[in-house]
Amino acid sequence: MDNKACVSKGKVCVTGASGFVASWLIKRLLQSGYHVVGTVRDPRNEKKVVHLWELEGAKERLELVEADLSKEGSFDNALIGCEGVFHTASPVIGIQSDPKAEILDPAIKGTLNVLKSCKNNPNIRRVVLTSSSSTVRVREDSDQDKMLDETCWSSIELCQRLQIWYPLAKVLAEKAAWKFAAENNMDLVTVLPSFVVGPCLPRDLSLTASDVLGLFKGEAERFSWHGRMGYVHIDDVARCHILVYENADAKGRYLCSSSVINNDELAGLLAKRYPSFPIPMSFKQLYRKLNYKFDTSKLQNLGFNFRGIEEMFDESVQSLKEQGYLSEN
Fold first, then answer.
1. What span, in angstroms and rounded, lies between the C-alpha atoms of 129 and 296?
2. Residue range(s) defining the domain that contains residue 114
3. What are 85's strand-pairing partners?
4. What pLDDT shows up at residue 220?
5. How do residues 9-66 score in pLDDT, each as one tens digit?
6. Residue 4, in any domain of the structure
7. Distances from the Cα of 314 to the Cαs of 223, 308, 311, in angstroms?
8. Which CATH number do you get for residue 85?
9. Average pLDDT in the 275-280 region?
10. 20-32 helix and 234-246 helix, angle to the nearest 10 degrees
């Protein structure tokens, strides 16, 4: 890639740079010729960031700077000279003693802290926020073979009643972002990926990659909470972010999902494709049966095409083998 192409793409910021989605996004942005400023909690933590410095173009066009979602103004310096921001960072989801304090408040306040820094930088022309398809699919009417699109929102009341904190945090954070953007005349676009599958660039596996690993090790409980789920290739998620950033006509929310299938369908498909692994064939039903589908025509109308479910799992398995997490019997 020549220097002219690199300069012409400009400078962008990616929050939560060491994460699963952010790492792939940075990889694609560098390949496209962007100068990337990645924010991390500790740029000196080599284990967390070494994979980023190994990316093509990183030495020439990647900066890693310290920023903390919990601190207002923490992103001000990272955004200096940037024309765009990709906000992918989110609180780590684990076992919680206080979900409001550990998940909900950090997700909302973290998003608003990033947007406040964007407001303070007049050069920012567009912000792309990584939300989730879980902001769409948790609904009382999802057992009606319903087609869900970007106009749909998950039920806050249902999320609270079922105590499913991740979708609730994503809904509240995205709604807070839209309110802030409207009040401050900010150009905001949101991407709503489904369950992300594919090669994991960071040394430590993401939660979704760990779930995929568990599935291939016969751990049915890893997927019992899914029931029915949309799946999407990690590289498609990265490409989608860049597409909606670069396309002047992109507006609003964009569902990013390839296939929506039930656990038993997925298990049957994978068991035939990978007969040497102990893929579980039965799953505990934690919630009522869901029959929703995703309408991704809004994204496809921008010229976007998704990879199939076989390809995303093939590449995920290959990556898990190469990293030493998975071996065939």
1. 18
2. 9-139+147-198+231-257+294-307
3. 13, 127
4. 80
5. 899 999 999 999 999 999 999 999 999 999 999 999 999 999 999 999 999 999 999 9
6. no
7. 18, 10, 5
8. 3.40.50.720
9. 93
10. 50
